[in-house]
Amino acid sequence: MKLAVFSAKPYDRRFFDEANKHHQHTVAYFEPRLTAVTASLAFGFPAVCAFVNDQLDAVVLKALYNDGTRLIALRSAGYNHVDLAAARQLGLAVVHVPQYSPHAVAEHTVALMLALNRHIHRAYNRVREGNFSIEGLLGFDLHGKTVGLVGVGKIGGCVAQILRGFGCRVLAVDPVPLSQAAEKTVTYCSLDEMLSQSDVVSLHCPLTYGTRHLINATTLTQMKRGVMLINTSRGALVDTTAVIEALLAGQIGYLGLDVYEDEAELFYEDRSSRLITDDVFSRLLTLPNVLVTGHQAFFTGEALTTIATTTMQAVADFAAGRPLTFALVGTPVTGA
After folding, report:
1. CB 105: neighbour CB atoms within 10 A?
2. Most buried residue, 130, 166, 198, 311, by CB count within 10 Å?
3. Do 292 and 85 meet the contact criterion of CB atoms below 8 Å apart?
4. Is-catalytic flag, 263?
5. pLDDT of residue 85
6. How many domains does the chain have?
7. Domain range holding 192?
């Protein structure tokens, strides 16, 4: 089956080509993001593979459908960038990869906590410049601290298990409880209780209408002064402008981000020789207690292998008219 892969990088090609050895799909890799401008590149491709910063609104989906696309294969767990209602109305099938590697994201989350706490990024730069002073690098014992998790699905559950190994008390906010065994690692409470009691707050929930700017000027005032805030989920869970003001006021003591609400124009590209025109993001980078990574929490060999194999299998199932295991929209009777 013909598959168009957008936002394709060399590592995508490597893992997808390996997974495709078992299927022999005809794959075309397009480096540009999928937008209304680039959608025409998928003309004649029954299947399109998109990533987290591709645009899959009603306009783009309609253009893809008119050009022959019938399957949208997301190589991500999140799907907030897809107009599922429009896809359903058009008759497009949409699949995702819900469990590529919760350990990858969970481990990166804890890495951000540790790096921020012990000022690893600042110490690294000092030593490279011959400065071996440790003044200003004082951290705290993570052991015995309270960590609040917003969302304890597969990723949040892994984070909880890791933190319990550090000796942390873990509070959790989630409308859907974990399995009985996993519940032993967390204490469920209200959002207000979690925010007021936590030394560290980490976000692991999907981006929906109800969770957009969950962390805002109001919820920030409910947190402990000097709290550590971590977001490895979706950028728009956080009102970045409000967070910057809280950082400057000392309400937030540490900020670790792997995502940013306006990241689409920045992340996954080398922009080192260009001026960053996003003033809010530039302001974030000037603060010494902020650590930003470029949406790389998922980026392990294990995760990329699972993403590629799951996506290629979904395309094969669609082509054969089989039920789609991870369908968000549609289970087609036959492939196109």
Report:
1. 25
2. 311
3. no
4. yes
5. 95
6. 2
7. 102-292
